[in-house]
Amino acid sequence: MLGLDAAGKTTILYKLKLGQSVTTIPTVGFNVETVTYKNVKFNVWDVGGQDKIRPLWRHYYTGTQGLIFVVDCADRDRIDEARQELHRIINDREMRDAIILIFANKQDLPDAMKPHEIQEKLGLTRIRDRNWLLGRHFPLRRLQPSRKRMGMTSGL
Protein backbone atom coordinates (compact mmCIF):
# COMPACT_ATOMS: atom_id res chain seq x y z
CA MET A 1 0.00 0.00 0.00
CA LEU A 2 1.62 3.20 -1.20
CA GLY A 3 0.69 6.86 -1.54
CA LEU A 4 1.83 10.28 -0.45
CA ASP A 5 2.21 11.06 3.23
CA ALA A 6 -1.07 11.82 5.04
CA ALA A 7 -3.17 10.08 2.36
CA GLY A 8 -4.61 7.73 5.00
CA LYS A 9 -2.75 4.47 4.29
CA THR A 10 -2.25 3.40 7.90
CA THR A 11 -5.82 4.28 8.86
CA ILE A 12 -7.10 2.18 5.96
CA LEU A 13 -4.81 -0.73 6.86
CA TYR A 14 -6.10 -0.94 10.42
CA LYS A 15 -9.73 -0.44 9.41
CA LEU A 16 -9.30 -3.40 7.06
CA LYS A 17 -7.51 -5.45 9.72
CA LEU A 18 -9.51 -4.55 12.82
CA GLY A 19 -12.74 -3.14 11.42
CA GLN A 20 -12.36 0.04 13.47
CA SER A 21 -10.47 3.31 13.54
CA VAL A 22 -7.26 3.58 15.49
CA THR A 23 -5.10 6.58 16.28
CA THR A 24 -2.12 6.71 13.93
CA ILE A 25 1.09 8.66 13.60
CA PRO A 26 3.09 9.26 10.40
CA THR A 27 4.69 6.02 9.28
CA VAL A 28 8.46 6.03 9.23
CA GLY A 29 9.38 2.71 7.67
CA PHE A 30 6.45 0.34 7.28
CA ASN A 31 3.59 -1.55 8.92
CA VAL A 32 2.69 -5.04 7.73
CA GLU A 33 -0.50 -6.91 8.56
CA THR A 34 -2.31 -9.98 7.28
CA VAL A 35 -5.84 -9.09 6.22
CA THR A 36 -8.62 -11.61 5.53
CA TYR A 37 -11.32 -10.70 3.05
CA LYS A 38 -13.85 -13.19 1.66
CA ASN A 39 -11.81 -16.16 2.90
CA VAL A 40 -8.65 -14.87 1.20
CA LYS A 41 -5.67 -13.88 3.32
CA PHE A 42 -3.16 -11.40 2.01
CA ASN A 43 -0.29 -9.40 3.44
CA VAL A 44 -0.53 -5.64 3.26
CA TRP A 45 2.67 -3.62 3.50
CA ASP A 46 1.86 -0.02 4.43
CA VAL A 47 4.99 1.94 3.55
CA GLY A 48 5.60 5.52 4.70
CA GLY A 49 4.90 8.19 2.09
CA GLN A 50 7.15 11.09 3.08
CA ASP A 51 9.23 12.34 0.15
CA LYS A 52 12.49 11.24 1.80
CA ILE A 53 11.18 7.67 2.15
CA ARG A 54 9.77 7.29 -1.38
CA PRO A 55 13.09 6.31 -3.01
CA LEU A 56 13.00 3.24 -0.75
CA TRP A 57 9.62 2.09 -2.08
CA ARG A 58 11.24 0.11 -4.89
CA HIS A 59 12.79 -2.24 -2.34
CA TYR A 60 9.27 -3.50 -1.54
CA TYR A 61 8.26 -4.25 -5.16
CA THR A 62 9.70 -7.75 -5.61
CA GLY A 63 6.93 -10.33 -5.61
CA THR A 64 4.14 -7.75 -5.39
CA GLN A 65 0.90 -9.07 -6.87
CA GLY A 66 -1.23 -6.01 -6.25
CA LEU A 67 -0.79 -2.35 -5.45
CA ILE A 68 -3.20 -0.31 -3.36
CA PHE A 69 -2.33 3.32 -4.10
CA VAL A 70 -4.08 5.70 -1.69
CA VAL A 71 -4.95 9.23 -2.80
CA ASP A 72 -6.20 12.03 -0.56
CA CYS A 73 -9.10 13.38 -2.64
CA ALA A 74 -9.10 16.65 -0.70
CA ASP A 75 -5.41 17.38 -1.36
CA ARG A 76 -5.68 19.23 -4.67
CA ASP A 77 -2.27 20.84 -4.18
CA ARG A 78 -0.48 17.49 -4.39
CA ILE A 79 -2.53 15.51 -6.92
CA ASP A 80 0.13 16.04 -9.61
CA GLU A 81 2.77 14.75 -7.21
CA ALA A 82 0.58 11.70 -6.54
CA ARG A 83 0.23 11.12 -10.31
CA GLN A 84 3.99 11.28 -10.80
CA GLU A 85 4.61 8.80 -7.98
CA LEU A 86 1.90 6.41 -9.18
CA HIS A 87 3.31 6.31 -12.71
CA ARG A 88 6.86 5.94 -11.40
CA ILE A 89 5.71 2.88 -9.43
CA ILE A 90 3.73 1.17 -12.18
CA ASN A 91 6.44 1.77 -14.78
CA ASP A 92 9.01 -0.09 -12.68
CA ARG A 93 9.72 -3.53 -14.22
CA GLU A 94 9.18 -5.23 -10.84
CA MET A 95 5.58 -3.96 -10.82
CA ARG A 96 4.62 -4.87 -14.40
CA ASP A 97 2.38 -7.78 -13.35
CA ALA A 98 0.75 -6.11 -10.34
CA ILE A 99 -2.92 -5.25 -10.48
CA ILE A 100 -3.68 -1.73 -9.33
CA LEU A 101 -6.34 -0.46 -6.94
CA ILE A 102 -6.46 3.30 -6.60
CA PHE A 103 -8.18 4.07 -3.31
CA ALA A 104 -9.86 7.47 -3.49
CA ASN A 105 -9.75 8.41 0.20
CA LYS A 106 -11.29 11.28 2.18
CA GLN A 107 -14.17 11.89 -0.21
CA ASP A 108 -16.28 13.13 2.65
CA LEU A 109 -14.12 16.24 3.10
CA PRO A 110 -15.15 19.63 1.66
CA ASP A 111 -14.04 20.23 -1.93
CA ALA A 112 -12.80 16.65 -2.32
CA MET A 113 -12.27 15.53 -5.90
CA LYS A 114 -14.86 13.11 -7.26
CA PRO A 115 -13.78 9.74 -8.70
CA HIS A 116 -14.00 10.94 -12.33
CA GLU A 117 -11.73 13.88 -11.48
CA ILE A 118 -9.24 11.60 -9.71
CA GLN A 119 -9.24 9.31 -12.75
CA GLU A 120 -8.43 12.25 -15.01
CA LYS A 121 -5.83 13.90 -12.74
CA LEU A 122 -3.97 10.62 -12.19
CA GLY A 123 -3.96 9.77 -15.90
CA LEU A 124 -5.60 6.41 -15.28
CA THR A 125 -7.10 6.10 -18.76
CA ARG A 126 -3.55 6.08 -20.16
CA ILE A 127 -2.82 2.86 -18.24
CA ARG A 128 -3.64 0.28 -20.89
CA ASP A 129 -1.22 -2.55 -20.22
CA ARG A 130 -2.74 -3.82 -16.96
CA ASN A 131 -5.89 -4.00 -14.88
CA TRP A 132 -6.71 -1.13 -12.56
CA LEU A 133 -9.69 -0.12 -10.47
CA LEU A 134 -10.60 3.18 -8.87
CA GLY A 135 -12.09 2.21 -5.51
CA ARG A 136 -14.28 4.70 -3.77
CA HIS A 137 -14.02 5.36 -0.05
CA PHE A 138 -17.44 5.88 1.41
CA PRO A 139 -17.54 8.34 4.33
CA LEU A 140 -17.29 5.95 7.26
CA ARG A 141 -18.76 8.26 9.83
CA ARG A 142 -22.03 8.33 7.85
CA LEU A 143 -22.41 4.55 7.55
CA GLN A 144 -24.08 2.22 9.98
CA PRO A 145 -21.50 0.29 12.05
CA SER A 146 -22.29 -2.96 10.22
CA ARG A 147 -21.52 -1.31 6.86
CA LYS A 148 -18.30 0.50 7.77
CA ARG A 149 -15.98 -2.28 6.68
CA MET A 150 -17.98 -2.73 3.47
CA GLY A 151 -17.10 0.82 2.45
CA MET A 152 -13.44 0.05 3.00
CA THR A 153 -13.49 -3.22 1.07
CA SER A 154 -15.55 -2.18 -1.95
CA GLY A 155 -12.43 -2.10 -4.12
CA LEU A 156 -11.01 -5.39 -2.91
Automatic annotation (TrEMBL):
One GO term of the biological process aspect: establishment of cell polarity
Xref: Pfam families: Arf
Binding site for GTP: G3, L4, D5, A6, A7, G8, K9, T10, G49, N105, K106, Q107, D108
Alphabetized UniProt keyword annotations: GTP-binding, Magnesium, Metal-binding, Nucleotide-binding
SUPFAM superfamilies referenced in this protein's UniProt entry, alphabetically: P-loop containing nucleoside triphosphate hydrolases (SSF52540)
Gene Ontology MF annotations: GTP binding; GTPase activity; metal ion binding
Residues that bind Mg(2+): T10, T27
Record PROSITE patterns: ARF (PS51417)
Highest taxon of the lineage: Eukaryota
Role played: GTPase that recruits MYO1E to MHC class II-containing vesicles via the effector protein ARL14EP and hence controls the movement of these vesicles along the actin cytoskeleton in dendritic cells.
Assembly, per entry: Interacts with ARL14EP.
Family, as annotated: Belongs to the small GTPase superfamily. Arf family.
PANTHER family: ADP RIBOSYLATION FACTOR-RELATED
Name of the protein: ADP-ribosylation factor-like protein 14
Organism of derivation: Pleurodeles waltl (Iberian ribbed newt)
